[in-house]
Amino acid sequence: MKLTSKGRYAVMALVDLARFNNINPVSLRDISLRQGISLDYLEQIFSKLKKDQIVKSIRGTQGGYVLSKKPNEIKLTNIFHAVDEKVKTVKCKKDSKKGCNGKATKCVTHNLWDELENHINSFFDKKSLEDLLKSNNENRI
After folding, report:
1. pTM: predicted TM-score of the whole model, two decimal places
2. Spatial distance between the Cα atoms of 92 and 99, rounded to a whole number of angstroms
3. Which H/E stretch holds residue 56?
4. Which residues contact 37 (CB under 8 A, 6 or more apart)?
5. Strands 55-58 and 64-67
6. I need a surface site. Which of 14, 52, 84, 99 has the fewest CB within 10 A?
7. How far apart are CA 109 and CA 115, in angstroms?
8. Tens of pLDDT along 11-26?
9. For residue 17, what are the contacts with CB-CB under 8 A and spacing of at least 6?
């Protein structure tokens, strides 16, 4: 199982945005500088986040991005879904009659990996941006 940089960077950028969200709209350039993420890549990510209504863009000289919802209402699952990130531990589709090895039966460890995928997705569904903000603040003390 591998989480791509798109998913990780989306979460990093949104945590950064959430830290400054209540002050002014945050520019992607500022997020790019603070987090070391390419500005072009952030623009692609934020286009998807905006389309999924996780962020809103504010135009003008003081413009930038703000969260569309409160940090506790934005789950990591929502972020991953917005940027087309899927957490998969098996190659086959869950409802497929074919197994991940291309044969008629599923491999002998299929249920193990399927269960792990369920645990991971459940974990991400319980974690919100607010949880990450809190843990980040606790580490700074």
Report:
1. 0.84
2. 6
3. strand 55-58
4. 9, 12, 13, 31
5. antiparallel
6. 84
7. 10
8. 999 999 999 877 789 9
9. 26, 31, 55, 65, 66, 67
Q: Cβ neighbours of residue 91 under 8 Å, at least 6 residues apart?
A: 100
Range of the domain at 109: 5-140
Contacts of 62 by beta carbon, 8 Å cutoff, 6+ apart: 24, 25
Q: Cα separation of 45 and 106, whole Å?
A: 35
Q: Please report, for the domain that includes residue 70, its CATH number.
A: 1.10.10.10
Residue type, 115: E
Q: What local confidence, expressed as pLDDT, does residue 98 receive?
A: 65
Amino acid at 136: N
What's the total number of domains in the chain? 1
Q: What is the pLDDT of residues 88-121, one digit of tens each?
A: 777 766 666 666 666 667 778 888 888 998 999 9
